[in-house]
Specification:
Blueprint (H helix, E strand, L loop, with lengths): L13 H10 L35 E3 L4 H9 L6 E5 L7 E4 L3 E4 L1 H4 L3 H16 L2 H13 L9 H5 L6 H30 L4 H10 L14 H8 L3 H9 L4
Parallel strand pairs: 2-4
Antiparallel strand pairs: 1-2, 3-4
Helix pairs in contact: 2-4, 2-7, 4-7, 4-8, 5-7, 7-10, 8-9
């Protein structure tokens, strides 16, 4: 879940983290991480904005697991900042500009492949610079000049309380969520050997039938499932080559 909501942004149990580590590939060192995956799409050529992320309340640094960093490396993210939040009001995971991924205790209790999909989804938001896309769109659709601000949060705040502006930008958010779903599923396949059925589809089928609405970013869960099915064979081939 990539939290925008008219603004920026977006203790675990040792046994649960160990379960994830055992289910995914065991990488001997971060130095052995691969370059960006050849199939991973290039990020959009949009303006880079300045972003500042304040540590969320009740957040603490979360030590990265090797498989998460492997997904980040495949996505071309040189440094991923991981946080653990006890506040689960934004869902099990969310991303924030420029390189922050926040997990909750609920996320760490997930099945390993479902969690791999959720993390992969958020990594895509960061790698594909969806936050910069949103900031640019806010300036364009609000009629502000392109040099009005170089601060991403300030650009996003143009939509605060402006439902009409949110409606105009909602198509972009929906495209971003679709992109994060299918590319995130492929990241989970290559890094953790998880096919789409065990990762994305299993996760979405356990979700409530959320989504919809005029300015919604996420469509209903079943619609997301149907959109992922064409990528099942590609994910299967990547999973078969995974060194898990």
């Amino acid at each position: 879940m990539f939290n925008l909501a008219f603004g920026s942004a977006r203790r675990g149990i040792v046994g649960n983290i160990l379960q994830l580590a055992l289910a995914c590939a065991s990488w001997h060192s971060l130095e052995a991480l691969p370059a960006s995956a050849a199939w991973f799409p290039d990020p959009p050529t949009v303006r880079h904005y300045a972003w500042h992320y304040d540590l969320c309340e009740a957040c603490e640094a979360l030590a990265p697991r090797p498989e998460w960093m492997h997904m980040a490396a495949l996505a071309g993210i040189p440094k991923l900042r991981l946080l653990l939040s006890l506040d689960e009001s934004n869902g099990p995971a969310y991303s924030a500009a420029p390189n922050v991924l926040v997990l909750t205790p609920a996320a760490l209790k997930m099945d390993a492949c479902q969690l791999a999909f959720v993390i992969g989804h958020e990594i895509v938001h960061i790698a594909q610079r969806h936050f910069d896309e949103d900031a640019t769109a806010m300036l364009v659709y609000s009629g502000m000049p392109s040099n009005w601000t170089d601060k991403g949060e300030e650009a996003l705040q143009l939509a605060d309380g402006d439902f009409g502006l949110a409606l105009r930008v909602s198509h972009l958010w929906q495209d971003q969520e679709r992109e994060a779903d299918w590319i995130g599923a492929l990241l989970a396949a290559q890094s953790c050997g998880c096919d789409i059925e065990s990762s994305a589809l299993a996760y979405l089928r356990h979700e409530s039938e959320a989504g919809g609405g005029l300015a919604a970013a996420h469509p209903a869960s079943m619609e997301r499932v149907l959109r992922l099915l064409p990528f099942a064979e590609s994910a299967k081939r990547l999973a078969e080559r995974s060194p898990r």
